[in-house]
């Protein structure tokens, strides 16, 4: 096979078009998923391999004797041994910007759920609470407006910019956080100041050594007791034990997260086992609109086609790999 997709099931539920991929290179072998022990045999004869989350290590790269290109079906690329790829002179590329609209919509869905208690009111109606109410409008849960609230954005790339634009349309005041511990540049506010002043805080930064547990006990203590924390980026940005403690003690009003450190989680995962009422959890689906997933596949096809035509193709450079 000239091209192999190792975990195609992670990006499709049978609703994606592969026309662009097939036009870029063929034939393909699409595997629903691949275990660590299956990787080497499945890519041994491939020229192009695609992986979303399956790890591509040194033995796999060295053992793929016809390999020309490694494509990551995501923006993050920590599932590829970049040093091994460099050593074997195999370029690695990723996909970028494909999920912006989907993630932004999910951020505001979570924010609106926190502000208006949609999930709680939906559950109230299902259990007969509205029907049993003495009034036309049961006021069991507090309802707030986004208008006039302050949104703190930590991470101001394409996603952070897009979230800021929508927030302003809602009538929110936007604060852009400077990097932690750095003096603020024009148009940005100090990291701690954003934590202290925001009614909602949303995370949009990559996970790295510098951002691991970016939000822990000290940061949560700086937030308002009425504030909400939202994370659709990477689970490791938040110290989950500290978050659970903060929520259970009423240190912050609530949180909504689409990502956790262990994905998929085990049945005894701490976040899911102890999930308090003021925590909303969705299963890493912020990115996963049908339109977003199709853009991902089409961008993969563009990368492959451009690579073989010696055009730019979202290559991950060695410098980028060192600063990730």
Automatic annotation (TrEMBL):
<feature type="domain" description="D-isomer specific 2-hydroxyacid dehydrogenase catalytic">
    <location>
        <begin position="28"/>
        <end position="312"/>
    </location>
</feature>
<keyword id="KW-0520">NAD</keyword>
<feature type="domain" description="D-isomer specific 2-hydroxyacid dehydrogenase NAD-binding">
    <location>
        <begin position="108"/>
        <end position="286"/>
    </location>
</feature>
<dbReference type="GO" id="GO:0016616">
    <property type="term" value="F:oxidoreductase activity, acting on the CH-OH group of donors, NAD or NADP as acceptor"/>
</dbReference>
<dbReference type="InterPro" id="IPR036291">
    <property type="entry name" value="NAD(P)-bd_dom_sf"/>
</dbReference>
<dbReference type="InterPro" id="IPR029753">
    <property type="entry name" value="D-isomer_DH_CS"/>
</dbReference>
<dbReference type="GO" id="GO:0051287">
    <property type="term" value="F:NAD binding"/>
</dbReference>
<dbReference type="Pfam" id="PF00389">
    <property type="entry name" value="2-Hacid_dh"/>
</dbReference>
<dbReference type="InterPro" id="IPR006139">
    <property type="entry name" value="D-isomer_2_OHA_DH_cat_dom"/>
</dbReference>
<dbReference type="Pfam" id="PF02826">
    <property type="entry name" value="2-Hacid_dh_C"/>
</dbReference>
<dbReference type="InterPro" id="IPR050418">
    <property type="entry name" value="D-iso_2-hydroxyacid_DH_PdxB"/>
</dbReference>
<keyword id="KW-0560">Oxidoreductase</keyword>
<dbReference type="InterPro" id="IPR006140">
    <property type="entry name" value="D-isomer_DH_NAD-bd"/>
</dbReference>
<comment type="similarity">
    <text>Belongs to the D-isomer specific 2-hydroxyacid dehydrogenase family.</text>
</comment>
<protein>
    <submittedName>
        <fullName>2-hydroxyacid dehydrogenase</fullName>
    </submittedName>
</protein>
């Amino acid at each position: 096979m000239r091209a192999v997709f190792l975990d195609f099931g992670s990006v499709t539920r049978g609703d994606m078009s592969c026309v662009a991929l097939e036009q870029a290179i063929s034939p393909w072998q699409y595997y629903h998923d691949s275990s660590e022990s299956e990787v080497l045999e499945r890519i041994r004869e491939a020229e192009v391999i695609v992986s979303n989350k399956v790890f591509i290590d040194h033995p796999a790269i060295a053992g793929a004797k016809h390999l020309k290109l490694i494509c990551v079906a995501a923006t993050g690329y920590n599932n590829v041994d970049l040093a091994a790829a460099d050593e074997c002179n195999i370029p690695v590329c990723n996909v970028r910007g494909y999920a912006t609209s989907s993630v932004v919509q999910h951020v505001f869905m979570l924010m609106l759920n926190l502000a208006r208690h949609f999930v709680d009111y939906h559950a109230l109606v299902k259990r007969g609470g509205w029907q049993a109410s003495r009034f036309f409008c049961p006021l069991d849960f507090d309802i707030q407006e986004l208008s006039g609230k302050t949104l703190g954005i930590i991470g101001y790339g394409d996603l952070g910019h897009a979230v800021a634009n929508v927030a302003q349309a809602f009538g929110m005041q936007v604060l852009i956080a400077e990097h932690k511990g750095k003096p603020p540049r024009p148009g940005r506010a100090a990291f701690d100041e954003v934590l202290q002043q925001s009614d909602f805080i949303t995370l949009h930064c990559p996970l790295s050594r510098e951002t691991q547990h970016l939000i822990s006990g000290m940061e949560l203590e700086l937030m308002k007791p009425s504030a909400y924390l939202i994370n659709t980026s990477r689970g490791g940005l938040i110290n989950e034990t500290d978050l659970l403690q903060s929520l259970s003690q009423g240190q912050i009003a609530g949180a909504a997260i689409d990502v956790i450190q262990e994905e998929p989680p085990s049945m005894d995962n701490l976040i899911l086992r102890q999930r308090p009422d003021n925590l909303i959890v969705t299963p890493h689906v912020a990115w996963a609109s049908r339109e977003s997933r199709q853009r991902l596949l089409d961008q993969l096809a563009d990368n492959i086609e451009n690579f073989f035509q010696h055009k730019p193709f979202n290559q991950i450079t060695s410098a980028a790999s060192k600063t990730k």
